């Protein structure tokens, strides 16, 4: 199989972890006989310094002409005082918009060897394997008006929650599609007892569910979902929800099983390419020290193999290698504990590569 991959390392440890992840892609290509090619693009603070913009047009074109995009991370204290349009994060928002990425997928997976770094008891998180699907294009974050104003001389404020029904349908469908290859359970999260948008959301979920008789669907109010997530996260398979609820719940879900350095993500569009990135940021505090955990980005590559290229066996090989390396006791600093073997970023990558 031939595939073109756009690589956007970005800032801070973004460079180190994408370098590692590309090595893993190369190893997969060799082992399974695929031809992956890599083209590099600029994004973020480095791009502001060199080109005067956090996202040059060349990068947008590069991504649009590729089969998948691998992103590291952007930002850092160096660029925090720039005017808003020059902030590195603007580059990220713009590339999401340019590529039409409408859903963000974050798997949370239990690793028995990392159970000690979870804030929850082992019994609670054992076997957790859930996938958060968050709508990215609508809802409160983009509704207009969003402003402060005067009403009868009083200060008031308004934010608008706006959704097209079609935006709900496509992300809920995606969740059902993904559930088919998992445990065939979808939990649709809303606040249908209070919000009109949530009542429509629930209707759409019921409508979509009719096309997937093999998938069990459950509706849950967001406040209850937030509680269930820490009380009994094992009950969830695929969780789908609108933008703001998803923002909050996906951060909650991400800490269940331990470290930030372990968590991958994928962002999905209607016609591709999809974008893959670790959920962590550029971690300026550990930049350039060769201690960053590359596994979140390596696991993002596994998601790329599965979702963009349909290479399930290859994706499993990467995930199994990560598991194997953890079981053998190798740890970067962020996940190290007593009795484990502390290794650098590059050594961790080598171990995963050798295992593949
Ligand atoms: P952003 O706003 O870009 O999300 P942030 O300020 O939330 O960034 P991160 O850059 O993700 O934060 O870093 C948070 C903490 O986690 C830092 O102390 C950082 O060193 C650590 N960290 C993040 N990613 C990793 C990683 N891959 N390996 C090790 N430590 C990490
Ligand atoms: Mg953050």
Features:
magnesium ion binding, 2 domains, binds adenosine-5'-triphosphate, two-stranded antiparallel ribbon, ten-stranded mixed sheet, 21% strand, cytoplasm, binds magnesium ion, Isopropylmalate Dehydrogenase, manganese, 356 residues, alpha/beta, 40% helix, globular, 12 helices, leucine biosynthesis
How does this structure look, described?
By secondary structure, this protein is α/β, with parallel strands linked by helices. It folds into 2 domains: 1-107 and 261-356, Isopropylmalate Dehydrogenase; 129-255, Isopropylmalate Dehydrogenase, CATH 3.40.718. It contains 12 helices and 14 strands. The strands form 3 sheets. Strands 2-1-3-12-11-4-5-10-8-9 form a 10-stranded mixed β-sheet, sandwiched between helices. The longest helix is centred in the first third of the chain and has 20 residues, at 13-32. It is globular. The model has no long low-confidence stretch (mean pLDDT 96). Bound molecules: adenosine-5'-triphosphate (ATP) and magnesium ion. Residues 13, 73, 75, 260-261, 280-283, 285-286, 292-293, 296, 334 line the site of adenosine-5'-triphosphate (ATP). Its EC number is 1.1.1.85. Catalyzes the oxidation of 3-carboxy-2-hydroxy-4-methylpentanoate (3-isopropylmalate) to 3-carboxy-4-methyl-2-oxopentanoate. The product decarboxylates to 4-methyl-2 oxopentanoate. One of its GO terms (cellular component) is cytosol. Substrate binds at residues 96, 106, 134, 223.
